[in-house]
């Protein structure tokens, strides 16, 4: 992504210096390109394609075209464009493969979404789009990330699609796909096996069941999702509340740790917004969207009511999780088994399901679940607050190792969800250890690509630079390209470094108020205590991971890099990035 955008900007600036009029199209993991219009292509005197992966070029048939790589384009962009103008030749597309004439082109639409909406969402979208171009499929991808939905699927695209692919780790609204064949998988599968995922989608997709809102949770949906996915949906919607609340509390500490106790002061107002309001909404939002994931809209109100009760009863995030599942499964059961005359059926999702499910969830929370869970949470909080250095180190080792086992997968998300939930109980140390460890794998890969450059191909060295940036942002997925190629060495090295960082963070007593942001949260005063020790913990783990992988990585890759970079021969790069 970084290389694509960098090439585009530098070449555009060079073209302007030459007095050229330019139109630029960038392909990046966010699926938010700037596609060239047909009139732009028709009016062009020269087409320059800078890429390292496959890219369909049929639309440029007959135009003067030159293809090259980012390495050539970035050396001297202005001279590169002048040479391109001199060397470009009319482009003639290759004849279509025989398989393409055997039937109509498969058409798919896809939605990608991950719990945090930062990395997997967009990386999976890019991988699917590249795979579709290689397979000759027509694919449009909608990304539902932390910035909202992008590249929205319109009704015409959905209607024309043979299959809807939902590569999501959280629940998304499927009512607009009623009557279409749907295939579900996680973003990790779509990212690592994009071509197989597209083929399976065409072969194994099943018709979307149900037309009414109350029937949105069909048996097929229940089998394909499950408690883990429902929990991640709740965590996904809760995260913005946690970020806002934690940073507002940290800002109140700028005026002094006890300044918020002074009535009428700005510190008191910030604490009221962050601690008394945002943090109180965390558990209701968590419970509400767990229930929403299970039973769709009818489960939202009962889930939030149960979550608010959990907070009032002192049951915290554990009670909120229980309330969300109680409300969700109760609402889904009522929607499936409560039979009414056709004239009254419309009252079910609006009146009867929220009423009966709220009553059931509330009574169970008050008389059955609330007190035991509150005691359990109080005991856990007391243990975390009073544990000695040995227990703290062991917990840090566990959380740090879990964050690096699968780089954004189920184990990583379990450790992350546990730490985020503890923020509502004012337990901030596990969050610090978790985020620090999550930065280690990509930072370690960046360090390894510097320490042992001769072992890495050119594309891997470029990926190492990008991984370093992603690591600073707490995007563990930046190490996925390395783990996918060499999991038996990358994963152990990452786990070792992550465990060390988590243990050091807990040993130093670091506490973090925000659940995301990487090193950039250090710009917020008091967002983390012991900032220098926190940086030391991250640096130690990253150096361990980078050093281990630099030693463990096999040197044969250097020979492959040399072969691919010989002058006069086209370089086959492992990376699929293109601009």
Automatic annotation (TrEMBL):
As recorded in UniProt, its EC number(s) are: 2.7.1.202
Q: Which reaction does it catalyse?
A: D-fructose(out) + N(pros)-phospho-L-histidyl-[protein] = D-fructose 1-phosphate(in) + L-histidyl-[protein]
GO biological process, any: phosphoenolpyruvate-dependent sugar phosphotransferase system
Annotated signal sequence is none
- Molecular functions per Gene Ontology: carbohydrate:proton symporter activity; kinase activity; protein-N(PI)-phosphohistidine-fructose phosphotransferase system transporter activity; protein-phosphocysteine-sugar phosphotransferase activity
Keywords of the record, alphabetical order, are: Cell membrane, Kinase, Membrane, Phosphoprotein, Phosphotransferase system, Sugar transport, Transferase, Transmembrane, Transmembrane helix, Transport
Residues annotated as domain PTS EIIB type-2: 108-203
Instruction: Quote the PROSITE patterns the UniProt record gives.
Output: PTS_EIIB_TYPE_2 (PS51099), PTS_EIIC_TYPE_2 (PS51104)
List localization entries.
Answer: Cell inner membrane
GO terms for CC? plasma membrane
Judging by the UniProt lineage, the source's domain of life is Bacteria
Q: Does the keyword Nucleotide-binding apply?
A: no
Transmembrane ranges, per UniProt, are 231-257, 277-295, 307-329, 349-380, 392-411, 431-454, 490-510, 531-552
- Which parts of the sequence belong to the PTS EIIC type-2 domain? 227-562
Cytoplasm found in the keyword field: no
Topology relative to the membrane: Multi-pass membrane protein
Instruction: List the protein's name.
Output: protein-N(pi)-phosphohistidine--D-fructose phosphotransferase
Task: Specify the species.
Answer: Azotobacter vinelandii (strain DJ / ATCC BAA-1303)
